[in-house]
Amino acid sequence: MSEVSLKNAKAGFSGFVDQAAAGEFVTITRDGKPAAVIVSVEAAALAKRALREDQPSLVQYLRKFPAGLEDDVFARNHAPSREADL
């Protein structure tokens, strides 16, 4: 993975795009700190796919719990709430 300052990236952008297309990650720094990365289209597609993967909801996660919770534990209670004096 190469690292280049923003100033140098502007000057040699075409070369850095070629490096990224070849599979190398090119990190662009601003004031010495990483600010962006140029990656290949394939790497970007993999990252997008990983971000879109559905994460299980809390209920889905708890249903896998080994204690064997019944489905009625997760059922909604449609009864009206109790009255409270405020």
Summarize the structure.
By secondary structure, the chain is of the alpha+beta class.
Give the SSE map.
Elements: E1 2-5, H1 6-11, H2 13-21, E2 26-30, E3 33-38, H3 41-52, H4 58-63
Parallel strand pairs: 1-2
Antiparallel strand pairs: 2-3
Written account of the structure:
Helices cover 38% and strands 17% of the residues. By secondary structure, the chain is α+β, with helices and mostly antiparallel strands. It has a single domain (2-72), classed as YefM-like domain (YefM-like fold, 3-Layer(aba) Sandwich). It has a three-stranded mixed beta sheet. The chain is elongated. It starts with a strand and ends in a 23-residue tail after the last helix.
Number of strands: 3
The CATH architecture can be named as 3-Layer(aba) Sandwich
What is the chain-wise order of helices and strands?
EHHEEHH
Quaternary structure annotation: single chain
Determine Rg (CA atoms, Å).
25 Å
Strand order of the largest sheet: 1-2-3
Give the C-level CATH assignment: Alpha Beta
Binned strand content: 15-25%
CATH topology name, in short, is: YefM-like fold
Task: Name the CATH superfamily assignment.
Answer: YefM-like domain
Distance between the termini: 62 Å
Q: Please indicate the count of domains.
A: 1
- How many separate helices? 4
Mean pLDDT: 85
Which structural category do the helix and sheet elements fall into? Answer: alpha+beta
**Main beta sheet: strand number and arrangement?**
3 strands, mixed
In terms of per-residue confidence, which ranges show pLDDT below 50 for 5 or more consecutive residues?
none
**Cα shape:** elongated
Q: Helical residue percent?
A: 25-40%
